What we know:
The protein has 188 residues and is mainly β. The protein has strands at residues 2-4, 13-16, 19-29, 37-44, 50-56, 60-63, 67-77, 80-85, 91-95, 111-117, 120-125, 129-137, 151-155, 160-163, 172-176, 182-185. Strand 13 and strand 14 (160-163) form a beta hairpin. It is flat and about 55 Å long.
Amino acid sequence: MKIQANNIRPGNVIEHDGKQWSVLKIQLIQPGKGGAFIQVEMRDVASGVKTNERWRTQDTVEKLSVDSREYSYLYAEGDMLTFMDAETYEQIPLPKEMLGAAAAFLQENMHVAMDLIEGKPVAVHLPQTVVLAVTEADPVVRGQTAASSYKPAMLANGVRTMVPPFIEAGTRIVVNTEDGSYVERAKS
Length: 188
């Protein structure tokens, strides 16, 4: 299906130069002079090679239809992550780099959506948020009471994030899996 370049979104799979590409990031650039264009960071589905491509916003690209299925995350072994199909119980090992930074937020038995083209995995989508414990948090600086002040903290998965001053070590918080940002304190 042909779509305009400005309708490309992260997670889409497109065909370009005879290859299938999974879109990782997009950036709309509007220079002061001339027409706007979109810069797309994408990964070759077959080889895993990343590249950047630019299109004018009115250009068209071929968006491939993907089959999305639910999988459960089982375990990590070295640089490989193992997932199990929720219906057939078939296990699929995938390289950790396919998920990028989001791999740090995987939790045992977590349900994920996996995009497949002709039975081959091309993208894995984690839930929007996860609940993690704060293992260490800097002390509150005296006089730092402004609503927008945040302090650094370390999460149980080893990721550093910024949290409000009232969050202490041992507190469970909700974290956005896309960028690792604090959302709210977890309900007990």
